[in-house]
Amino acid sequence: MKHRTMTLALAALLLLLSAPAMAADFSANIGYNSQYIYRGIFQSKSSANGGLDLNAGGFYLGTWAADVDDGIEIDYYGGYNFEAGDFNFGIGGTIYTYTSDFDDTYQEVNLSVGWKFLTFDAAIGKYKNFAGPTEDYQFYSVTAEYNGFYGKVGWFADDFDGTYVEGGYGNGLTVKDTYLFDYTFSVIYSDSDLLGGESDTNLVLSLTRAFDF
After folding, report:
1. Cβ neighbourhood burial of 21 (10 Å; 0-12, 13-18, 19+)
2. In b/e form, how buried is each residue of 80-99, taking b as 16+ CB within 10 angstroms?
3. How far is CA 32 from the centre of its chain?
4. Which among 202, 208, 206 is positioned nearest to 41, based on CA atoms?
5. From CA 187, how far away is CA 193, in angstroms rounded?
């Protein structure tokens, strides 16, 4: 899995560098979450984050980092997105790493297909699990979006288990024709299987500012 994920990222990088005819776009982003909850699982309170992205002709390569209290999460990803009529498709890979013992490395292949306001995502991965046996997992989600409102259902399979439901609204804040940042208000319900105990519901405010170069 690690070799497949790295191969996808390397292929995206080589294509980005070897295609001068493609218009390459470089961007950066910074953000803040009142609570950092990923795939329904709590990671940290009051978390800052930031990332760098390179896009060219549907290919993308990037990295993203977030404060997880006990260290920093650093992710690396790459892949390819394309459209066909009302449909859009994506294939890529992601590696999640941590600077401390907060968690161990995750390596996964990512697939997606979308139609108009609906998107289906799938992740097939391995979790290194410190000194324990490596665990296999799949994650699936269905997301619907309309005029800034969205709803999502996500669930795990294989060695991981559990389901969460998320809904919210996002938009950009502009003052006197000056764009300031994007914001999202969301409600996230995680079931007891996902959390390994009692279910939980959280309200989250997310702020993001992107910069194009």
Report:
1. exposed
2. bbeeeeeeeebebbbbbbbe
3. 15
4. 202
5. 18
What is the amino acid identity at position 85? G
Mean pLDDT of 109-135: 97
99: which residues sit within 8 A by CB, 6+ positions away? 71, 72, 74
pLDDT tens digits for range 180-193: 999 999 999 999 99
Tokens of 75: 């992710």
Which residue ranges make up each domain of the chain? 2-35+44-163
| 78: Cβ contacts below 8 Å, ≥ 6 apart | 8, 9, 10, 11, 12, 13, 59, 60, 61, 62, 92, 93
- What's this model's pTM, rounded to 2 decimal places? 0.89
Please name the residue that has the structure tokens 């299987």: 193
Residue with tokens 């294939």: 91
Task: Check: CB of residue 23 under 8 Å from CB of residue 40.
Answer: no
